[in-house]
Predict the structure.
Amino acid sequence: MLKILIPVDGSSYSERAVKQVLELADSGAKLAITLLNVQIPIASGHVRMFISQDEVNSYHQDEGLAALASSRALLEAAGVPYNYHIAVGRVAETIVRFAREGNIDKIVMGTHGRGGLLELLLGSVAHEVLKIATVPVLLVK
């Protein structure tokens, strides 16, 4: 069974990655699919004076579920089983660590995300994953 990790952020590029994996599933490939949403940590310091850790955790959970919703709907509509996780951290590093710790065989992800200006300033998550991943990475346009 091929273990596939699909990092998703709610963008149309994430949905395209899911659709690409669905094509593999339709071809009869035995797949174990995991969706992963990575939330960027909320700044500490003064912010923490006004927001409890439970509120921060709840926020990350809510945002993660919202970002996963369309990808989950695609897999459920196709009747394809999957797991999902929400993590908090630096996005590319968290994706690669999750793949390593989960013994993932392949990462399938969109070439772009919802990053916008943030992605321009910090560089492409997909590019960083390509540089540091130890498993094959399939980028979907």
